[in-house]
Amino acid sequence: MKKYLLLLLALVLVGSSRVSAQEKKYSMYAVGFYNQENLFDTCHDEGKNDYDFTPTGSYKWNTLKYTHKLRNMARALADMGTDKTPLGCAFIGMAEVENDNVLNDLIAQEPLAARGMQYIHHEGPDARGIDCALLYNPKQFQPYCHFIKQYVYENGDNSHATRPFLCVQGKMAGEDVTVVVCHWPSRGVEGKFRDWGGKQVRALTDSIAAAQPDMKFFVMGDMNDDPDNTSMSKFLGARREMKEVEQGDFYNPWWNILRRDNRGTLAYQGAWNLFDQVVMSRNLLATQKEKDHKDYRKATMQNCSTLKFYQNDIFQRDYLMQTDGKYKGTPKRTTAGGVWLDGFSDHLPVVVYLIKEQQ
Fold it and tell me: Nearest to residue 103, comparing CAs of 195, 36, 8?
């Protein structure tokens, strides 16, 4: 079995249907992010406020509901990226996972076990017990270092610990890649708390880049902010247009999807937000000159001797969407209004595709 999907792309002569004899081969990779919306087991973890997700808790979270949740999330995670590569995603950042127990149960689900999917997780200080994790396919991504960087409240508050940043370094397509998985403070607090998240992640990536200038970066997560909020646009430095991306900055391909195309990953009071984002460093761009995606993809195929961003999309399937009732047309979540819907998540997944020319 080949390690990576080889795409055969022919160079077509302008104004002619005849195919040039010259052919190039490319490998395509997918990476993604998906908020799991409360992937809890049914047991209480000491020191954590997870009582709602126990059989006697408010959600009446029992074995039936838990096993259905695992099955549903495994289905979506396995499908992510398969519209362009049958191997699916090389890695997927996840938010709202409780512990190693749920992750072990998750990767034991048939569609993930069939690919040999593994995970990286560090227990964090969040009061409810939810953490970030990275799910990965070892055939496509080989991690060699991982750690967490604690979120710091810059006002000195040490009583409301939140999710740390999960940093994973590894090899993809033979190249060094750093992935930072985030779940920034909720919209229940002021924007400055998410601004601090953006500033701290930027300091982390700047520090790594100073020691390893060729490192390629993905920052992904549920930012609890849209692409044009200051946490992303100013403090992290994730830019709307490729031409705006300076050294150390990131390109944010989700900005136009939200503001130009009016598409998002979660709905609130009849409007879309796009909190779930994957942004990438400048050295993952094939060019900064092309203005539209069609021209950019053409330029990428001409300049991808190293791993390059190709395109991105919100990953949407009919089974992920509510088809009737009050929440019709929004993500089909696990529970809404106190009713178990046997759904997936209140967020939609996002996927970024990359290509590299085979030598």
Answer: 36
Query: Do the beta carbons of residue 202 and residue 249 sit within 8 Å?
Result: no
Judge whether 343 and 72 are in contact, CB under 8 Å: yes
d(CA 316, CA 279): 19
pLDDT surpassing 80 at residue 92:
yes
pTM of the model: 0.93
More confident residue, 146 or 290: 146
Q: Is 28 exposed, middle or buried (0-12, 13-18, 19+ CB in 10 A)?
A: middle
Stretch (H or E) spanning 299: helix 293-302
Q: What angle do CA 324, 326, 332 make, to 5 degrees?
A: 60
The predicted pLDDT at position 22 comes to: 54
CB-based contacts of 270, cutoff 8 Å, min separation 6: none
The residue assigned the tokens 């979120």 is 151
Q: Which residues, including other chains, have CB under 8 Å from residue 62's CB and lie 6 or more apart?
A: 42, 55
3-state SS track over 189-244: CCHHHHHHHHHHHHHHHHHHHHHCCCCEEEEEEECCCCCCCHHHHHHHCEECCHHH
Q: What is the rounded distance in angstroms from the CA atom of residue 97 to the CA atom of residue 130?
A: 5
Strand-pair partners of 350: 33, 314
Q: How far, in Å, CA of 80 to CA of 90, rounded?
A: 10
Q: How far apart are CA 124 and CA 156, in angstroms?
A: 19
Average pLDDT, the chain: 92
